[in-house]
Specification:
With 138 residues, this protein is α/β, with parallel strands linked by helices. Helix content is 14%, strand content 28%. The protein has a domain at 42-136: RlpA-like domain (Barwin-like endoglucanases, Beta Barrel), CATH 2.40.40.
């Protein structure tokens, strides 16, 4: 004979609250309730972007892959490796989509380092840095 697991009343109450609080309040039955659509796009942040020097070409990134100056990749302090991010230069409106594969930038005043290929598309080459908006697209 199986024994039932003991669940403390306070835990049972918390579980009940969480399950009912997270359900949509639509006034419809469960069969016809429409869940709100998940947003695939969210603004991550705005700040200054810079780009990698060519001398890093061929070196390993924090994710373990080799850095290539031709790839559209970037370094971010906290976003998971593999996250696809749309970077918009706020000075000229140019956009590029990059994949996070490294950690950085190591200057507190910057929020992302992009590869030279991405920097060319954004118009960063020669300027060094620019104000950007970062939007995670996955």
């Amino acid at each position: 004979m199986q024994q039932k697991a003991f669940i403390a009343p306070s835990v049972r109450c918390a579980l009940f609250f969480l399950t009912t609080a997270l359900l949509p309040v639509t006034g419809k039955t469960d069969e016809t309730a429409v869940m709100p659509e998940k947003r695939a796009v969210s603004v991550v942040s705005e700040g200054r972007a810079s780009y990698y020097a060519d001398r890093f070409h061929g070196r390993r990134t924090a994710s373990g892959e080799r850095f290539s100056i031709q790839d559209f990749t970037a370094a971010h302090r906290t976003l998971p490796f593999g996250t696809t991010v749309r970077v918009t230069n706020l000075d000229n409106g140019r956009e590029v989509t990059v994949r996070i594969n490294d950690r950085g930038p190591h200057r507190k005043s910057r929020i992302i380092d992009v590869s030279p290929a991405a920097a060319r598309e954004l118009g960063l080459i020669g300027r060094g840095t620019a104000p950007v908006r970062i939007v995670a697209v996955n």
